[in-house]
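Reading a protein record of the kind used here takes little practice once its layout is understood. The fold follows as a row of integers, each naming the local backbone shape at the matching residue. With these conventions in mind, the following record can be read line by line:

_____
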Amino acid sequence: MFNYSFSIQDFEFYLLILTRVSCFVFAAPFFSTTNVPRRVKVGFSLFVAFVLYRFVVPHYLLTYDTVLGYAVLVIREAIAGVLLGLSTNLCMFIVQFVGTLTDMDIGLSMVNFFDPVTRTSTGFTGTLYQYSILLILCVTDMYQWLFRAFVDSYELIPTGRIVFDMDVLFESMAAFITDFVVIGFRIFLPVFGAMLLLNAILGIMAKIAPQMNMFTVGMQIKILVGLGVLFLTIGMLPSISDYIFSEMQVMFERFAGGMSAG
């Protein structure tokens, strides 16, 4: 015999779960892409929130006195969902950083595309890396790990009992900035090495044959060499995705730890 009773307290508890889920879907990679219809996102959030409410999240009485107190709980849940999603989505900007550096080095910095997914102007290499990483994220079921980690976060961050440790959150953000630069330059290193060697060769040729216009010749050579290096290093995409996905896991754990009650 199923019990279908649903009191106002249960509805308030469900709304808190729905708030965190919907904000996570809004900010997380793969789930937040703009080419997914909004109705699908809303329906997915409602369904997931109901499943979590019914089978996963333990029920307990919320502690608040006024409507303003409940509004504070809703705002806390929204911030928690956004931070959990943003902690992983920030890692996708690493490939945009690598693409910007690569385009500047090989002479494609003026070639920009409007990406309808992120609604930003991105370069050629950044777009290539971004869609490749998203494809690998889908193929390797990384999005399933991301969603399972979000569901498991309810054990560490109980509903309505979020405690923000600002010191941990700021330290996590500072650590991400360091990892952002380190991982970005590791990915950019093959192109940087090839361009550094090519610039040295062009400099020597400019001294040996000053009658040649190295500026005109060098632009075409740098583009050809740069595209050649990208073609030769395309097999490194799985390793690049490992860097990105590992950073996603680390950042998710850090931000979840900064919002835990204990």
